[in-house]
Design a protein that fits this description.
Mean pLDDT: 84
Number of strands: 5
Number of helices: 10
Helix content: 40-55%
Radius of gyration: 17 Å
Strand content: 5-15%
Order of helices and strands: EHEHEHEHEHHHHHH
CATH topology of the largest domain: Rossmann fold
CATH class of the largest domain: Alpha Beta
Number of domains: 2
Low-confidence stretches: none
Distance between the termini: 43 Å
Oligomer: single chain
Strand order of the largest sheet: 2-1-3-4-5
Largest sheet: 5 strands, parallel
Length: 219
Amino acid sequence: MTHPTIRVVIADDQPLVRTGLRMILSAEPDLEIVGEAADGRAAIAACRDLAPDVVLMDVRMPEVDGIEATRVVTAAVDPPRVLVLTTFDLDEVVYDALRAGASGFLLKDAPEDRLTTAIRVVAEGGSLFAPSVTRRLIEEFAQRAPRRSPDLTGLTEREHDVLRLVSRGLSNAEIAAELFVSENTVKTHVARLLMKLGVRDRVQAVVLAYESGLVHPGG
């Protein structure tokens, strides 16, 4: 079965990092590097002009940083998924990037297969990082973030249950086992609650769940 090619833009201010990423991705038949950028401003332009599926975005770049670039890029019509690259796994900047619309993050020293897998996962709209890391990051910084008051009244009781379990880092299969339903049923619930919340993926839903007070850090 032939998989569609995933178009990737690499945004990092270090030429050696871009070269290393290019070498790794060029070896994958389903990944195509369509552009590179050395700062956030160039990353925004590349996304506008090249319409990539995924952007590998360094958070710390000159001129316009990765957070602001992520905010601009994800606000566009039919935006690419943003996979944030960072040196530290507990970095407040990473959480800011998630709030700006990134679909997740990856450590720069992650194994090659984890990088390529993460790109494919986010391209398909999935959640990308380890549940333990997701929850740790969000719990760490949701306590400091300003509270939002989204309207959750449109969610059914079951969708509330699913959102709480997603926020605990459970996969669709684990949620299905917890609720005694099929995995396809869980997928349907997740798709509906994402639509109702007006968010693009599970990561954004989890951020919203913590910031709205639906889920409490440590709970």
